[in-house]
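pasting for ref. prot 1 ->
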Amino acid sequence: MRRFGWLVLLGGVVGYAAALGLLWWQQGALIFPQRVNSLTIAPVAARDDFQRINLTATDGLTLQVLQTPRRVPVNPTLVVAFGGNAHDVGGMALWLRQVFGSNTVVVAAPYRGYPSAVGIEQAGKPSQAAILADAVTLTGWAQSTF
């Protein structure tokens, strides 16, 4: 009976370790799923007042960024956002502009490897390091521009 108890305990420890190993191995796919929710109607530049801008990331990749509005208000509030996992960056940027008001400039980019309804499809592969580097590039550009 005592041996059975040790076997059950050992089985539980091995099972728990296997589950943790599986989660660690799949963490990238769990955080950055390859399925993207998209808008049913893509934003239109003439109607929705946005523009696309290309920036060069620290690793040389071209970041495709969306800015709304095209004409920047005086002393704007700057909102920097990333979309792709659960939101389309086009719809998200336009929504953020509505939420924060007319004196706001929203600059947004999809995660690397994610598409967008406004025709932006970021090259590369999503990762924590890539998002951090892209955030530093995007924020630095936005602060010096606005």
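and prot 2 ->
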Amino acid sequence: MDHLPVHRTTGAHGREAIRPHRSQERAVQRIGPQLCAAGEMGFTSGPGRDVLWLRVPEAVRRRMREYAGSESLLWWASAADGRRPEAVLFGDRALCFADPRVDTRHKPVYAISAYHLDPVSLRRAEVVHRPGPQGRQRTSGPPRRASTPPPDARPGALAIRTGVQEVLGHLPPRAQELLQAPFLAGQEILRQDYHYYGEAGGDLSVFCMVFAGPQDVTAVEGSRTIPVGHTETDAHWDLRCYRGTVVKRRGR
């Protein structure tokens, strides 16, 4: 894990289907993903990610870019209650987290964690969700059936935090499935986080969520729109989903 001091300054992709590894296929069929129920999404006023990103020390941002690679797939910076911002950057070579800390000398630092990826393993898929009002789905193909665990499946097989579940539940079922797929065989989710920007009950111009484990990372990035006559339950989504294989991990 890298610890960088805080400097007091003023500061078009190819598309591939995402499929589970062969060793995980049986587990996916046996357990099935948790299709979460949507909960309340909290909103606060304050600077957006563009402003907060620049408040992260330049040395920290530079190190994250070095790890993440030349292609940025999603990113955000967020802060609560006047605290220093935390940041996430996902690229074609790593998923990176920058967490504000205080070192043993009580000086502010940032701890950078990185999940380094095999670039060849990176897979991408688009999820375009266009339900009609009251949930009538308009698709060009046959309707998808939600995966249902068998009666003897262990409930809560994935350790997804309650707050994350409530936000995850707003996503279309296919996006929920892709985020969870590599973890259904028992792989632990070590990091889980999300970020969104928009209006309560309205459009979200930015939506990001990431899951990271010892072997895989998954991520989703995109936007939500609520057309006239629709609500959050039948919102339209344009999402890009990613999955990559971890080859090395530093930090937590």
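Confidence is low (pLDDT under 50) at residues 5-30, 138-156.
The helical segments are 22-31, 49-55, 58-68, 162-168, 173-180.
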